[in-house]
Amino acid sequence: MQQKNWTKQEILDLYNTPLLQLVQQASEVHKQYHNTAEVQVSSLISIKTGGCPEDCAYCPQAARYNTEVKVHKVMPTAEVLELAGNAQKGGASRVCLGAAWREVRDNRDFDNVLDMVRGINNMGMEVCCTLGMLTEEQAKKLANAGLYAYNHNIDTSEENYNKIISTRNYDDRLNTIHNARKAGLTVCSGGIIGMGESAEDRVGMLYTLSILRPVPESIPINALVAVEGTPLEDQPQVPIWDMIRMIATTRIVVPTTAVRLSAGRVGMSMEGQALCFLAGANSIFAGDKLLTTPNPEFNQDMEMFNILGLKPKAAFADKHHDHNHNHEKVTV
Ligand code: SAM
Ligand code: DTB
Ligand code: SF4
User: 95: part of which helix (H) or strand (E)?
Assistant: First the structure.
């Protein structure tokens, strides 16, 4: 399908459509492009936690803020594989490995991440990584190890970016996304609402995502989890109506993508989440922890799926991906 070239004004007009009308329109698009009964379930594993040199205002893992996050060096591969196995038993088809790094460095830690990717891929699950900035060569190494997706969020609009982060810029983000693409990885990129941004900023973020070619295969929409000790600790919880509006607009603007109802679900009712699914969300993070903050329990989500008539989507349903072999040449 040919992605439409949206203008910012068109996206803003959509965003400002009366809510139920917007949800109805998004629901139509969702039905046209996706099996609305299926939700992709990902599980997050924080393989390296805290102590990050960056200054992202929302993030509890930045070393410079006084938060309760305890710093952990890279987790042993066996432990990561065990957690991935548990997630698979719980219904997850994708595991996302997160590291509190500014960027990937070519060292032992990265070699260990490559081992984790191989291991999880061999278990028949899609593997995603979110490790910060990355060169094309590093992206290729990950792809060769069997990585399916790279997550790298643009977080907000270009105009608002330097109010949230000063230690890198928007172009750095876009550059990493291009590097992941050049290596043949699928791209997961989205952002956060509830950081004090304007409607225009939300729209600007969607505009930037919509002009990427190809568009991201997955767009996470996070509701800010305001964590004590971060500069955004006093931000009020984002109204569920904003989340529904943002998800519906994303669904219409990028019809083919998986829209992920991402961080912030612990503060949402089942009814609120149901409206998000109706508005086109078709992906979630499951498991009782995101990276450092709480998330609903697996069982609670499965109960929600039963009530709403949703089912977890199988791994590798969208793309032929030979997960039985990684692409590296084996030399004896
Ligand atoms: N360090 C890497 C990076 O920043 O690209 C990867 C991990 S980072 C924690 C991944 C994403 O988590 C961020 O880009 C941001 O969108 C999201 N995130 C972090 N803290 C959050 C919070 N408190 N609330 C909502 N989303 C958050
Ligand atoms: C994404 O968009 N959200 C996830 C994942 N990608 C890496 C992270 C959410 C983190 C929420 C705060 C925390 O738990 O530390
Ligand atoms: Fe570091 Fe990523 Fe958190 Fe920014 S979002 S402080 S880069 S872990």
Answer: strand 94-99
Residue whose C-alpha is closest to residue 178's, from 202, 143, 214: 214
Structural domain boundaries enclosing 92: 26-322
Catalytic-residue membership of 276: no
Q: How many CB atoms lie under 10 A from the CB of residue 203?
A: 25
Please work out whether the CB of residue 227 comes within 6 Å of at least one atom of ligand 1: yes
Domain presence at residue 17 = no
| 13-34: pLDDT as tens digits | 999 999 999 999 999 999 999 9
- Is any ligand 1 atom within 6 A of the Cβ of residue 238? no
For the question of residue 129 being annotated catalytic, the response is no
Residue with tokens 């990684």: 326
Domain count, the chain: 1
Residue 243 falls within a domain, yes or no?
Answer: yes
Q: Which residues line ligand 3 (CB under 6 A)?
A: 52, 54, 56, 59, 61-62, 100, 102, 132
Atom of ligand 3 nearest to the CA of 291: 8
Q: What is the CATH number of the domain that holds 30?
A: 3.20.20.70
List ligand 2's pocket residues with C-beta within 6 A.
44, 60, 96, 98, 130, 151, 153, 190, 220, 222, 225, 262-263, 290-293
Q: Of 54, 44, 40, 39, which Cα lies nearest the Cα of 84?
A: 44
Positions of E strands within 173-247: 186-188, 191-193, 218-223
Residue 8 lies in a domain: no
Catalytic residue among 56, 168, 245, 276: 56
pLDDT one-digit tens code per residue, 138-189 = 999 999 999 999 999 999 999 999 999 999 999 999 999 999 999 999 999 9
- Tens of pLDDT along 28-58? 999 999 999 999 999 999 999 999 999 999 9
Residue 21 lies in a domain: no
Q: Would you say 279 and 26 are in contact if contact means Cβ atoms under 8 Å apart?
A: yes
Distance 131 CA to ligand 3 centre (A): 9
pTM flag (> 0.85):
yes
